TrEMBL record, chain A:
Transmembrane segments: 29-49, 69-87, 108-129
Keywords: Heme, Iron, Membrane, Metal-binding, Transmembrane, Transmembrane helix
GO molecular function (one): electron transfer activity
Protein name: Succinate dehydrogenase cytochrome b556 subunit
Subunit structure: Part of an enzyme complex containing four subunits: a flavoprotein, an iron-sulfur protein, plus two membrane-anchoring proteins, SdhC and SdhD. The complex can form homotrimers.
Co-factor binding comment: The heme is bound between the two transmembrane subunits.
Compartment(s) of residence: Membrane
Function: Membrane-anchoring subunit of succinate dehydrogenase (SDH).
Taxonomic classification: Bacteria, Pseudomonadati, Pseudomonadota, Candidatius Mariprofundia, Mariprofundales
Similarity comment: Belongs to the cytochrome b560 family.
A biological process from GO: tricarboxylic acid cycle
Gene3D superfamilies documented for this protein: Fumarate reductase/succinate dehydrogenase, transmembrane subunit
From TrEMBL, chain B:
Annotated metabolic or biological route of this protein: Carbohydrate metabolism; tricarboxylic acid cycle
Organism: Mariprofundus erugo
Required cofactor names: heme
Pfam family, one: Sdh_cyt
Keyword Heme applies: yes
Topology term for the membrane: Multi-pass membrane protein
Record's protein name: Succinate dehydrogenase hydrophobic membrane anchor subunit
Coiled-coil features, chain-numbered ranges: none
Chain segments annotated as transmembrane: 21-42, 62-82, 94-118
UniProt-listed GO biological process terms: tricarboxylic acid cycle
Signal peptide: none
Molecular function terms, GO-annotated: heme binding; metal ion binding
Record bears the keyword Lipid metabolism: no
Alphabetic keyword roster: Electron transport, Heme, Iron, Membrane, Metal-binding, Transmembrane, Transmembrane helix, Transport, Tricarboxylic acid cycle
Length: 130, 120
């Protein structure tokens, strides 16, 4: 703790203002953002669980809310965040295991995962609006 | 090198990293199942009694418990890393991580209480 001011007052990674934006960096940041979204929706999961485990009225109320505009939007956010976090999580695990570790493969897989999430977002929107 | 040894340093780094991956593997298997159940409830393919049939037995409860524990470990490790990266002031950092731990434990206990009490 000789010089805490200089050492600690900066963010460590990924340093947004320093590096040029690359697919792998976007994938990493999106992993954090989607993880944060999934955590922020925790009260909703508890409420849904309450509706599922409660009385028939509770269940009906939960179903009605899920089919409302806000409910569908929430399901879309959670679904897309979960799908992306899942796919990119598998990508991270494979990189940790030593597969597809080259710079080119990491960039390519980042693009693939982001594109898959885009398609999933569209499909889920169609499903929820239909 | 002395400078680096402060709260949030790399002392427990490998254990955290390992737990993060271990919980990720558990979640990768169990979480899609729960999401499918949620979608089936949403679309009406599964009513409340059908749901009870699936969840109201020992194996489901055990899997559900493992899921919640892995979820809390994973979310805790992930948010902790984010806070350590983007919250530079030590006081804030420690308070946020502590508050998060309390909230997540509370959430987990509440959730498990519902799961194990359900159906009776």
């Amino acid at each position: 703790m000789n010089d805490p001011g200089r050492l600690t007052r900066r963010s460590l990674s990924p340093r947004l203002s320093v590096y040029r934006w690359q697919p792998a960096m976007i994938a990493s940041l999106a992993h954090r953002v989607s993880g944060l979204i999934l955590v922020l929706f925790v009260p909703l999961y508890l409420w849904i669980l309450h509706g599922m485990t409660g009385s028939t009225d509770d269940f009906e109320r939960m179903q009605q809310w899920l089919h409302s505009g806000l409910g569908r939007l929430s399901l879309w956010f959670v679904g897309v965040a979960l799908f992306y976090h899942f796919c990119n999580g598998l990508r991270f695990l494979s990189i940790d295991a030593g597969w597809c570790e080259s710079r080119m493969m990491m960039r390519l897989s980042a693009r693939v995962v982001i594109a898959m999430a885009g398609v999933a977002a569209l499909l889920l929107a169609v499903l929820l609006l239909g | 090198m002395k400078l680096i040894k402060e709260p949030g340093s790399a002392r427990s780094g490998f254990r955290d990293w390992y737990l993060q991956r271990l919980s990720a593997v558990v979640l990768a298997v169990l979480l899609p199942l729960s999401f499918v159940v949620l979608i089936l409830v949403y679309t009406g393919h599964l009513d409340q009694f059908g749901l009870l049939d699936i969840v109201d037995n020992f194996v489901s409860r055990l899997l559900h418990t493992i899921l919640i524990i892995a979820l809390i470990v994973h979310a805790y490790m992930g948010l902790k890393v984010m806070i350590e990266d983007y919250v530079p002031v030590i006081g804030w950092r420690v308070s946020l991580i502590g508050g998060m731990l309390v909230l997540m434990s509370g959430f987990g206990i509440w959730w498990l209480a519902i799961i194990w009490a359900w159906g009776g």
